[in-house]
Write a structure and sequence with these properties.
By secondary structure, the chain is an all-alpha fold. It is 73% helix and 0% strand. Helix 19 runs antiparallel to helix 20. It is rod-shaped, with a radius of gyration of 57 Å.
């Protein structure tokens, strides 16, 4: 038969080969060596033949079976062959698989195997069970144990691939076969990583509730880093690196932390401007609180869960700083309102480094606020400040205009203005204006000294323009009133309030400068301050003047009675004048001191001027000495009445009220004189005291006296021109205000 022929051929070939080997006597010593070598060759050929037949029998298991054969070849271990190979070829393939699985799984459970090639087959046959068990461990959260199994599987695969690489680095088919077989392991690694990153994301919460879990995660990452280093070293030496290496889990962990920090910062904005005007303040406050809390936890708890070389606290600090810087730049780029710019800059420039945040004592010494970089660049800060100043300028102009409009509405009310605690009339205008200035200065001071100074300069600059408008409005108020003196009903009281406001404004400007301006900056504001003071003085002076106009409009009919026949006969014009003035001054008592004193002096002066003007109008010319005496005595008596009135009105102000009424008395003495030869002497005394008396005043005075001829007047006037003058140094010229009518007063008035 064919089989017998084959056997005979084989024997013949064998005899031939043996004869070839044993041609010399010394070769007999090597018989055992030759026998073993031939046995190995025979076994190899048989194995190949039997494998081929088994593959043909079980085509559906081709990949798996070939893979196991590959393992057997790679192991190169005689013991394994002796113990297992003959079984593999004797038994049914599936039965063998079951047997090997049981054996290898038992070995695996008892940690008997190592990653040495000898045990690879044992491990590989139990691969599906190990994968399932690892999956269960991950699902139960037993991450350390799961990772231990995963490492063992990866170790097996990596060693296997390395052996294949060493034997035949170009054999991609076998490499792919190993890679495919271990495909589930890659999913396991991804699943485990997913669990790790979930813990890392919640690390600041986890570290408070379950620090052990976080420590486990860090240990796993450390193990992987170690394997990464080993694999990279092997790559340098051999050129081989397993798929998926290096994993770089430490780097991934820091990336996850960085994303978590960014999300935490971004996620704190709960509101928008539409839903809440204070949205930014709230947003910044939540950020402040979160960041401080997180860093305190990181310093006290998190730091202990990581190896020192992770420098976890400083890494986190930098992440928070970077995330905050990004967020602040985003906010700065938005179309912010003035108050929002202030909130942002205050937070960025002050709050961030204050004890409420990075400067918190519990974060020291790890956090040094002086070494923290700015959250936003100086350029962005300058842009925001510039935008703030321009918005603030238009806001202040608008606020001041509105405040003045509101104040003007009060001026026409039918109720008196409110009074301060000392009883002085006022309106709310100065309080509103300076409260607004104060608020903006306090806000600016939160940011920095430089902005505070800029805002103060802006406020005072706008105040300057505002006071000019205030002056114009007060003038219009007066003009409107003069069209109909019955309206507004409380004109006098509101004009007093306007005058008093000037004093309040003056005091407020000084107070504001003292509070917010450094002494060395005083000079830069002195000119604008002087200008404002001057404007306020004009407003007050014009206000006082308009109030005195009111008085003298009411006095006019009574002043017209002075120095007339009716007056000489005993009219009570001066009594009425005094009562009217006193009545007005009951209201004027509500004027603040500096202006009230001015008012009293001015009223006193104007009464005397009007009285002298009445004399110079030549409404009467005395007929005889008796009339002259009677008229002069009446003048002296009325001068005394005025003196008494104004002394009373000026009580406590220290005003010298004597001098003005003395002029009336001096004129009365000239009129009273009975000896005409002494007239020149009397007149020259008058002129030396009051050198602003003009010739026409003397002529009018002599006309009223009624007994001086034209020649006598001429002589007296010409002689007087050469006389010396000895005025009182405190004398304020009064006659220059008094004009003398050139036409003779008609007889009708006498």
């Amino acid at each position: 038969s064919t089989m017998e022929e084959t056997d005979r051929e084989a024997v013949a070939t064998a005899v031939q080969r043996v004869a070839g080997m044993l041609q010399r006597p010394d070769q007999l010593d090597k018989v055992e060596q030759y026998r073993r070598r031939e046995a190995r060759k025979k076994a190899s050929v048989e194995a190949r033949l039997k494998v081929q037949s088994l593959i043909n029998l079980r085509a559906q298991h081709e990949c798996t079976f070939y893979f196991y054969l590959l393992i057997l070849n790679l192991t190169g271990n005689e013991e394994l062959r002796k113990n297992h190979v003959h079984i593999l070829f004797r038994e049914h393939l599936l039965t063998i698989f079951q047997y090997l699985k049981i054996v290898s799984f038992t070995l695996f459970q008892n940690n008997y195997y190592s990653c040495s090639p000898a045990c690879l087959l044992v491990l590989l046959l139990s691969f599906p069970e190990i994968v399932r068990e690892t999956q269960d461990l991950i699902e139960r959260g037993e991450l350390l144990q799961a990772h231990r199994k995963l490492m063992d599987l990866e170790c097996s695969r990596d060693n296997l691939m390395y052996e294949q690489y060493r034997m035949d680095s170009k054999n991609t088919h076998d490499m792919n076969l190993i890679h495919t077989y271990f495909g589930d392991m890659q999913k396991l690694s991804e699943e485990l990583a997913k669990q790790l990153w979930m813990v890392v994301q919640r690390s600041l919460v986890t570290v408070r509730r379950d620090p052990t879990l976080l420590v486990s995660v860090v240990r796993i990452i450390e193990r992987e880093e170690k394997i990464d280093r080993r694999m990279l070293d092997r790559k340098k030496q051999t050129g081989f690196i397993p798929p998926g290496r290096p994993k770089k889990w430490k780097e991934k962990m820091f990336n996850i932390l960085e994303r978590t920090v960014s999300t935490r910062i971004e996620g704190t904005q709960a509101d928008t401007r539409e839903s809440d005007k204070m949205w930014l303040v709230r947003h910044l406050e939540i950020i402040r609180k979160y960041v401080l809390d997180d860093l305190l936890v990181a310093k006290t708890l998190l730091d202990q869960c990581f190896p020192p070389h992770y420098d976890i606290f400083n890494k986190l600090l930098n992440m928070y700083h970077q995330a905050l810087s990004t967020r602040m730049q985003e906010l700065a780029a938005e179309d912010l309102e003035a108050n929002e710019i202030v909130s942002l800059l205050t937070w960025v420039l002050n709050t961030y480094k204050s004890t409420e945040m990075m400067g918190n004592s519990e974060l020291s010494p790890e956090v040094d606020v002086n070494s923290l970089n700015p959250l936003i660049s100086q350029n962005v800060v300058d842009q925001l400040l510039s935008k703030y100043m321009s918005t603030l300028t238009s806001n202040i102009i608008g606020w001041l205009r509105k405040a003045l409009e509101t104040d003007k509405k009060d001026w026409i009310k039918e109720t008196e203005p409110e009074a301060d605690q000392d009883g002085y009339y006022q309106t709310t205008l100065p309080a509103i204006v300076f409260q607004m200035f104060e608020q903006n200065l306090q806000v600016a001071a939160q940011i920095n000294e430089d902005l505070k100074t800029k805002v103060l300069l802006l406020c005072l600059q706008q105040m300057n323009s505002f006071l000019t408008r205030y002056k114009d409005e007060a003038q219009l108020y007066k003009e409107e009133h003069l069209k109909n003196r019955q309206y507004p009903q409380c004109y006098v009281q509101y004009m007093i309030a306007v005058i008093n406001n000037c004093q309040t404004f003056k005091e407020s400007i000084i107070s504001l400068k003292r509070k917010y301006l450094k002494t060395e900056m005083e000079d830069t504001l002195s000119s604008s301050h002087t200008s404002m003071d001057a404007t306020l003085d004009i407003i007050a002076k014009e206000g006082c003047s308009s109030l005195l106009d009111e008085v003298f409009m009411d006095l006019e009919p009574h002043l017209n009675e002075l120095m007339t026949k009716k007056w000489l006969m005993g009219s009570n014009a001066v009594g009425t004048i005094c009562v009217t003035v006193e009545d007005y001054f009951n209201d004027f008592a509500r004027i603040k001191k500096p202006y009230k004193k001015t008012m009293t002096i001015e009223a006193h002066r104007r009464v005397v001027v009007e009285y002298i003007r009445a004399i110079m109008l030549k409404r009467i010319s005395f007929k005889n000495a008796e009339e002259r005496k009677e008229g002069a005595e009446r003048m002296i008596k009325e001068a005394e009445q005025f003196r008494f009135l104004f002394k009373k009105l000026a009580a406590g102000s220290g005003e010298d009220t004597e001098g003005l009424c003395d002029i009336i008395e001096a004129i009365a003495e000239v009129i009273k004189l009975t000896d005409p030869s002494l007239l020149y002497l009397e007149v020259s005394t008058l002129v030396s005291k009051y050198p602003d008396i003009r010739d026409d005043h003397i002529a009018a005075l002599l006309t009223v006296r009624g007994d001086a001829s034209r020649d006598m007047k001429q002589t007296i006037i010409e002689t007087l021109d050469q006389g010396p003058s000895q005025p009182n140094p405190n004398y304020v010229p009064i006659f220059k205000e008094i004009t003398v009518p050139t036409l003779t007063v008609p007889k009708l008035l006498k």
